[in-house]
């Protein structure tokens, strides 16, 4: 299995990434990182102040240290194509 990761804005897919394929396991562990280039204008909409929980903490950490990388684990959620 593998995981597809979408960067979305207002139900529009801006970018897609994919993990490596993990063979012969039903419970794969992915220790991978992904980077997306996002303009500052779009960043507020994607992960900005409307976020909650861990995503909000990541947002405030990024604002506090604008030139440093901020790592954050996020729970995978199913994609709803509404």
From TrEMBL:
Domain C2: 1-82
Cellular component terms per the entry's GO annotation: axon; dense core granule; plasma membrane; synaptic vesicle membrane
InterPro entries xrefs: C2_dom, C2_domain_sf
GO molecular function terms noted in the UniProt entry: calcium ion binding; calcium-dependent phospholipid binding; clathrin binding; phosphatidylserine binding; SNARE binding
Pfam families reported for this sequence: C2 (PF00168)
Superkingdom in the source lineage: Eukaryota
Listed GO biological process terms: calcium ion-regulated exocytosis of neurotransmitter; synaptic vesicle endocytosis
Protein name: C2 domain-containing protein
